[in-house]
Amino acid sequence: MKKLTKQKYIKYHNDGSLWAKGFTQDGKMTGNWTWFRKDGSKMRTGNFVDNKQAGKWVTYDKKGRIVKITQMK
Fold first, then answer.
1. What are the tens digits of pLDDT across the range 18-69?
2. What is the CA radius of gyration of the chain?
3. CA 31 from chain center: how many Å?
4. How far is residue 5's CA from residue 3's CA, in Å, rounded to a whole number?
5. CA pair distance 49, 28, nearest whole angstrom
6. 37 and 62 Cβ atoms separated by less than 8 Å
7. Partners of 22 in the beta sheet?
8. pLDDT at 3 exceeding the cut of 70
9. Does residue 45 contact residue 57 with C-beta atoms inside 8 Å?
10. How far apart are CA 60 and CA 37, in angstroms?
């Protein structure tokens, strides 16, 4: 039986600033993920289960205030 290992995943905007960070497992998004704007402010956070959005997803404005909460199935 193949053991699945979690791997840290980081992606950058073309200008080199952080765009997204999270984890993959067997090539699929898993666990908590965070996306960022080019100015470095947090844009969205959420959780993946087997490459699908799950649970509470939160969208933030540039000052870090919550502007939207979406409950995924």
1. 999 999 999 899 999 999 999 999 999 999 999 999 999 999 999 999 999 9
2. 13
3. 8
4. 6
5. 9
6. yes
7. 9
8. no
9. yes
10. 10
Alpha carbons 73 and 67: distance in angstroms, whole number: 20
* Tokens 């470095």 belong to residue: 40
Q: Which residues contact 1 (CB under 8 A, 6 or more apart)?
A: none
pTM of the model: 0.88
Residues 6+ apart with CB under 8 A from 38: 13, 15, 17
Cross-strand pairs, 7: 24
Q: pLDDT band for position 2 (50/70/90)?
A: low
